[in-house]
């Protein structure tokens, strides 16, 4: 999710830990409740038709974040 430098700074001041260039792979749950989310690190690859580097997964870089809720941030406005 894109963020300005000041947004990152303010989030970190509030104690939020950010994972840059990572993407969710799957939500892990137990008894119909979220317990974690598996992610994988990404690297910037070749430039695509839009002129931006295309993110590519880094093999073997999967990691799990413990969680009791997940909020999908897929836009800047509510749907």
State the share of residues found in helices, binned by percent.
10-25%
Average of the residue pLDDT scores? 91
Global shape? globular
Stretches where pLDDT is under 50 for at least 5 consecutive residues are: none
> Strand pairing plus helix content: what structural class?
mainly beta
Radius of gyration: 15 Å
Number of helices: 1
Biggest sheet layout = 4 strands, antiparallel
Strand composition percent: 35-45%
The figure for the number of domains is 1
User: What would you call the quaternary organization?
Assistant: single chain
Describe the structure.
With 79 residues, the protein is mainly beta. It has one domain (19-79). It is 11% helix and 42% strand. The protein is built from 1 helix and 4 strands. The chain has one helix at 5-13, and strands spanning 22-30, 33-47, 53-57, 63-66. Strands 1, 2, 3 and 4 form a 4-stranded antiparallel β-sheet that branches. The chain is globular and about 45 Å long.
Salient structural properties:
single chain; 79 residues; mainly beta; 4-stranded antiparallel β-sheet; globular
SSE blueprint:
Blueprint lengths: L4 H9 L8 E9 L2 E15 L5 E5 L5 E4 L13
Antiparallel strand pairs: 1-2, 2-3, 2-4
In short:
11% of the residues lie in helices and 42% in strands. It is mainly β and 79 residues long.
